[in-house]
Every structure is written in C-alpha cells, then in structure tokens.
Amino acid sequence: MQHHVVMADNDDIGRKAAELILSFNGYKVDSFKSGEDMLKFLEDHSPDLVMLDVKTAGIDGFETLKRMKADEKTAKIPVIFLASGHDSNTESKALASGALDFVAKPYVTSILLLRVKNMIQLGKLRNELSTEVERKSGEAVREHEKSERLSLQVVRTLAGAIDAKDKYTNGHSSRVADYTREIAKRAGYSQSAQEEIYMMGLLHDVGKIGVPDTVINKPSKLTDEEYSLIKTHPMVGYGILKNITEMPKLAIGARYHHERYDGMGYPDGLKGEDIPEEARIIAVADAYDAMSSRRSYHGVFAQEYIRSELEKGKGKQFDPNFARIMLEIMSEDEDYKLREHYDTSDDAQGQKNDGFSDSEEEAVFAYISMLEAGGLNTALGLRYCMNDVDFYAEMLREFTAGAEDREKQLTSSLEKGDVSKYRVYIHSLKNASRTVGAERLSRLAEEIEEAARNKDVEFLKENNDELIANLKMTVGGILMAVNMYGKE
C-alpha cells in the first residue's frame, strides 16, 4: 500500500527535496506553498501524514495546525513540523501545539524517512487500536489478547519514534526493555510482572518527545538551560502515561528512572527503597545501554569499563542488588553481544555505489571539482541528496532556476519596507543555499534573517547588495560547471 503524505512549505528547495526523497522511497506526495491551500486540499483527502513548515505562505504553520485540530475530519492526522536552525523554543511550541514530531531542515535523508515511517505507523496503529477497542469491547479473552498485542505494537512504535529523535540511540528503548525484563526475571518476578516491567522499559523515555532535537543531539556540553530541558522528560513522560489506568506502573517507570539510590537524582530526589523498585531496575538497564551503545558524545565503551562503572555505582547511583544482577548478566556475556550493533561500512552510512564507468567517474569528478571551485561545499550538498549526483544536479537546477525570482522578491520587499515578507524570502534562501552546499551564502542569509527578525532595516539595506552579489556569484559558478560538463 502506498502511503500518502501532504506537505505545506513555502521554501521551494526544501519542498522539492522532501518530495524527491519521499517519492524516491515509494510515498505519494502532494505539496503546497500555503497553509490555506493545504487545508482546502484536506477537505477532500485523508492523507496518512502531514508535514507542516513553521513558515508557510499566508497563515503560518501554527495557525494551520490549529485549524486542523479544530476540524474533526483532520484532527487525528499525524503532523510533523518542519523548521530550520536551532530554535528550541519553536520546536517546543510546535510539539505543545499538537505536532507529534519535529524535523530540522536541511533534511538528513535517513532521519526524515525514519520519522515519516514511524509517525505513519504510529497513526495507523493508534487508529486501528481505537477502532478495534470500540468494535470488540464486549468480546471475550481471545479479543482481549488481540487488543493487548495491538497495544504492544503501538508501544513499540511509539518507543521507536522516541528513539528516532536521537540519531545515535536507535533501538535504545527496546534494549532497555530487554535488559529490564531479564533483571526482573533473575530477581524472581512472575511472568506477568516481567511483561509489565518490559512495557515500562519500552516507554521509560517517552517524555523525550517534548525535548527539542537540537538539545538531544547536541554533541558538545549542554548549557544549564539545555540540561534543565533534558531533566524535564521524566515529568513529561509521567504526564503522558499517568492516565493509562489499566497499567498505572507505566507512569512510575517514566517518572523515577533518573532517581539515584543515594538521593542525588531527579525529579524528586528520592533515596534508596523510597524509589519504586521497577524504576531502580530500569535505572540500571538504562545506564548499561547508555554505555554499551553510541551517543553523540561517545562510542561503545569496553565491557571492563562498564563493569567498573556499575561496581562504583552500587549503593550510590544504583540499587546494589540490581546492579549485582546486571554484573552477573555481563559475566555470562563473554562475546559482548549485549550492546548496540551497527554497520560502520560506507553503505550502511548512506553512501551509494553508483556503478559509474571510468569515463563517467571522470566526468562526475570534473563536475564536482568545478562546483567546488565555484565555492560550493559539495560534500554537504551530496549529503542532503543521498550521495546521488543526479539528485544533487536536480537540486542545483532548482536553485539556479529560482534565483532571479528570489532576487526580485528580496529587493522588492526591501524597497517597500515590508520586513515581514523580506524575512520569509531570506529564510527560504538560507535553507536553499544550505541544501546545495552554498555555505557562505547561507551564513550571510542567516545573519540577515536575524536582522530582519530584529527589524534592523538599516542592516538589511547595508547588506542586501552583498547578498545579491553573492547569490549571483554562486549561480554563476553552478552554471559554469553545468555548461562545461553537461549536467543540464
């Protein structure tokens, strides 16, 4: 079955990039520049997913989402918000407005596809579960078991969507759930209690859905403000799960898994056996997986290092009994199989073997070299185009074809003193430039966008000519490469 994605984005390059990525991977895509046009389209169509840019022509993304949520027909369609830059306030506002996820531009292809896939699956399973519960509520055990299986599918899909927010933690929630269940089994838990704590492990990080991606994926040290945002996720998770009355302990795992045995944890600073037992188990499993898998700030640690950290943490960070059980599990894992497994080959990282002949490779090399001589960072541009040279060439064609219109729009809006429109146009140019690898132009556009945000008209007037000159120079370099090497 072909899934249907509808998108509203005023940025021509970004919209085209998303269309090509999704279409190439089998999705049906309808896209619009304005929120109003998209809403009109939704009157007669029910897509599997909506991708909504913060800045759209006419009403903005937040108003568009508000109208969707107010309409019974569109209220349940999953929405992913799109935006560029690193504005955590915008990301938080989008999630608070009812979006299920947030994707930054320019797109990283693998992340975009994973987010779209997970959100469609989550929406589908949620609707299926709702329909199933309504239709089957009066039936006996067999149907109850079926609903339980569907619930587990929803939980697993939701856990996958949470893990996808961090490009380094794919599978984290599932591994934590597995380790948690094994610790519980060895601690004497019944089969039903093992399954219950497994579900708690799957959803222990659900609160991260409300933490901006820019904070979760930051490779350097967090600021105090960013760390405060991270520390909100237990309470956010608790707020999401506390109303699931059939499994009240789900909320306990989310809230207390960052408490420490010595009382130095958060959010409540509980100590020792005041911390719910299940949360003490999850805390050990969570810490083990954090050390045995990749993060933005470290690789997979050696077993001996992890062992030493668990030993040091007994009675301090961890319940000593559950830390002891985890150490026993590690001792049995002689081949170090209990860790994240990933393929470090180029193909696994999204590289593409294009199968060029020698002459074709020579022509491609010359083409890329000419683009770089014209000032483009082709490695960056190719990264956003799945390392597909033809895809990249298509993006460059889009960029050059729209350059004259961009110049007219910027100049006209500045002459009229319409700073709001100018900001929309400069924002679009910034994203488009970054997508094709025109870093210098993108940086200049970013500076000017900030001035437009602050309504610094003098700065705009002083720097617009330089911007236009840089745009023309970039376009000229691209066209020279196209003319010389035939990538028309």
SSE inventory with pairings:
Elements: E1 4-8, H1 12-24, E2 28-32, H2 35-42, E3 49-53, H3 61-70, E4 79-84, H4 88-96, E5 101-105, H5 109-136, H6 141-164, H7 172-186, H8 191-202, H9 213-216, H10 224-230, H11 233-241, H12 249-256, H13 277-291, H14 303-313, H15 320-332, H16 358-373, H17 378-383, H18 389-401, H19 403-415, H20 419-436, H21 439-453, H22 457-485
Parallel strand pairs: 1-2, 1-3, 3-4, 4-5
Helix pairs in contact: 1-18, 1-20, 5-6, 7-8, 7-13, 8-12, 11-12, 12-13, 14-15, 16-22, 18-20, 19-20, 19-22, 20-21, 21-22
Structure keywords:
single chain, 5% strand, 5 strands, mainly alpha, 5-stranded parallel β-sheet, 488 residues, Four Helix Bundle (Hemerythrin (Met), subunit A), Hypothetical protein af1432, Rossmann fold
Into which percentage range does the β-strand content fall? 5-15%
Helix content: 55-70%
Please give the alpha-carbon distance between the first and last residues.
35 Å
Report Rg: 25 Å
Assigned CATH superfamily of the largest domain:
Hypothetical protein af1432
Tell me the domain tally.
3
| Biggest beta-sheet profile | 5 strands, parallel
Task: Give the strand order, joined by hyphens, for the main sheet.
Answer: 2-1-3-4-5
Element order: H for helix, E for strand: EHEHEHEHEHHHHHHHHHHHHHHHHHH
- Count of helix runs: 22
Write down the overall mean pLDDT. Answer: 82
Q: List how many beta strands DSSP finds.
A: 5
Query: What structural category do the secondary elements indicate?
Result: mainly alpha
Spans of at least 5 consecutive residues whose pLDDT stays below 50 are 343-356
General shape: globular
